[in-house]
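In the lab's daily routine, each protein ends up as an entry in a very long ledger. A line of letters takes care of the sequence, but it says nothing directly about the fold. The fold becomes a row of whole numbers, each drawn from a learned catalogue of backbone shapes. The protein below has been through that process, and both of its lines are reproduced in full:
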Amino acid sequence: MVAGTIQQIAQTLNSIIRGWVNYYGKVRLKGLSPVFFYLHQRLMSWSMNKYKSLRNSSVKASHFLRKIARDYPNLFYHWSLGYSFL
């Protein structure tokens, strides 16, 4: 995963995610759910490594990312389509 802030990660990944949705979503958009689940797991592990308070708790990391998804629903392209932690 790219080091830096979550905004930098989103900026880097949004064009890739948009390409996946445009290409694979033509057939079946629901088929991308496992990919987005894996991406969410990687974002959780990134946040656990980045922030000391989240280091030993995947539950806290999940709550942290849910709060970000709720506050900034268009940060990641797939969040704006409804694939989020909510």
